[in-house]
Amino acid sequence: MRRAFLVALALLSAVGGPAAGDAGASRPPLLAGARALDVTPPVGVPLAGYGGAGRRLLIPDVLNRYPSAFWFKPSTGAHDPIMARALVLQWGERRVLWIAVDLVGPDGEMVPELRERLAALGLRYDAVILSASHTHSGPGGFSRSRLFAFLALDRFVPRVRPEPGGSAAGS
Fold first, then answer.
1. What are phi and psi of 105, to 5 degrees?
2. 157: in domain
3. Could you tell me the pLDDT band of residue 86, with boundaries at 50, 70 and 90?
4. Within 13 Å, how many C-alpha atoms sit on residue 158's CB side?
5. Three-class SS of residue 4?
6. What's the number of domains the chain is made of?
């Protein structure tokens, strides 16, 4: 809890604030919006922390029996949802988006692609933060997955959009 508070405080500091001498000046309000989205992949996607000998396939899945698994056995169910959460902070023209996902970590293509897609919504490259909870009970063992791109990007980006008047809203 303390870590989350410190990160939120750092984000608020990064958004900036009026100088002490601006007490009489008109200040724009600090706008904030948050959204959580269940991005649990379907049964069959391999899990990240289960790469030991018991979780590996004896022979790689060259016959494509499991669409999302190659080296690791497919998952058999979900105990808890895999979540993606977003926090948008805006003060005047400054806007910051922080997305936290339940993954071991994003792959090398995810961050640039996410930033490119969000640039169309007016978010600068350096105003997008993507962090992972580093759970070993979430999807993993693959990259360049069209399935995960759909779950983590295609389903999430349309829900974080600017509204008339400059605030952000989720749907």
1. 180, 155
2. yes
3. very high
4. 4
5. helix
6. 1
